[in-house]
Amino acid sequence: MTEPARRDAADRCPGVFSTHAAADGAVARVRLPGGRIRPDQLELLAQAAAAHGDGYLELTARGNVQLRGLTDVDAVADAVVAAGLAPSSAHDKVRNIEVSPLTGRIGGVADVRPLADLLDERLQTADASSISGRFLFGLDDGRGDIARRQPDVCAVVRSVDASAEVVADVLVGGVPVGSARGDDAVVTELLAVAEDLGDISVGAWRVADLTDAERMDLTTRARTRLATVVGGPDPMPPEPIVGWFGQDDGAVLLGAVVELGRLPARLAEFVAAVAVPIVVTPDREILICDLDEGVAETVVRVLAPMGLIFDAASPWAAVSCCVGAPGCAKSSAPVRDDLLARVRGGEPVAEREHWVGCGRRCGSPSGPHRSVEATPDGGYQTHRR
């Protein structure tokens, strides 16, 4: 059995101010709390990728964006800071927040975007040294889409009371531990769990790294602070947010994917030019929001030929991969090339697949999927995870 990662080892996850030295150049990861990004911010990232990187924005399994092949990491950091996407070097890596992508626009018990803003604000003033840079916060608007991903700590909105305050159930490592009422109380509890993790085990990155006794301590601490324990939501079956969707306010939301989860910088600039809010989901989807019908029709007509895929039946809505060779020195195969050949060969994709070049399985989806892992002899072996 593989031993869990511990914080006494170096954190190889890239940030904006501490990039990762890959075989194809430096890699910077820009955290987007809740996957949200303004069009002007997307435009600046696209320009940075074109000027200093490989010309693509990579979409990650946490709804973030990566720039690869960087030749001037300081210029990229300056661009990210100028876009308002990196508050400080101390807090860059701890802003790991997944949010129901459709919240406030389609369905859900309540809009959790205000909770996300408050959590991000509080994270930026917290003692970053006490919070792991891999710890994942989740905010689920009641539909169960984020809860099924089992973040380290997750608030799931159960109801909105008569005073318009949210009532949210708190899950630690997927286990319900109690409920909190009001934005401030919910966010306070999420941060308390993250800080408790560091107190209980200074070496643990995530809840999964704890021993059984340490996990019991963590959940017991949360239960003593919270109201009655509840059962938690039924996990929402994963469905791609790809295609044309009607928002609750009558506007249109377009969901799209791109080949290999790589958004070309030029195409990103065209998406930014639509001048509406954009959301990147943990399933590497791009949501173009708050459109009127005429604009939505134009977006599809212009951007589909450029590479945005609006068809939920496309294989690219169900397959993903790591960078593979030669970009990663640890990879045993050119994963991207092999996945492109697999998709273009026309064999149906019956379930979610993630292709990887080694046992680290970078970028793997959080839910069940078929893992296709390269072997040292140049072949692949399949595992179901």
Write up what this structure looks like.
With 385 residues, this protein is of the alpha+beta class. The chain folds into three domains: 20-91 and 239-315, Sulfite Reductase Hemoprotein, domain 2; 97-225; 318-384, no CATH class. Helix content is 25%, strand content 23%. The chain has helices at 39-52, 73-82, 113-123, 183-200, 212-225, 265-273, 293-303, 335-344, and strands spanning 20-22, 25-30, 36-37, 56-59, 65-70, 97-99, 137-140, 153-160, 166-172, 175-181, 243-246, 252-256, 262-264, 278-280, 286-291, 319-321, 353-356, 370-374, 380-384. The strands form four sheets. A five-stranded antiparallel β-sheet has the order 1-2-5-4-13. β14 (278-280) and β15 (286-291) form a beta hairpin. α1 (39-52) packs antiparallel against α2 (73-82) and α3 (113-123) packs across α4. 48% of the residues are buried. The model has no long low-confidence stretch (mean pLDDT 93).
Keywords:
single chain; Sulfite Reductase Hemoprotein, domain 2; 3 domains; 5-stranded antiparallel sheet; 8 helices; globular
Q: How much β-strand is present in the residues?
A: 15-25%
Evaluate the radius of gyration. 20 Å
What is the fourth-level CATH superfamily of the largest domain?
Sulfite Reductase Hemoprotein,Domain 2
| Number of E-type strands | 19
Using the 3D structure, state the CATH architecture of the largest domain. Answer: Alpha-Beta Complex
Shape: globular
Would you spell out the secondary-structure blueprint of this structure?
Blueprint: E1 20-22, E2 25-30, E3 36-37, H1 39-52, E4 56-59, E5 65-70, H2 73-82, E6 97-99, H3 113-123, E7 137-140, E8 153-160, E9 166-172, E10 175-181, H4 183-200, H5 212-225, E11 243-246, E12 252-256, E13 262-264, H6 265-273, E14 278-280, E15 286-291, H7 293-303, E16 319-321, H8 335-344, E17 353-356, E18 370-374, E19 380-384
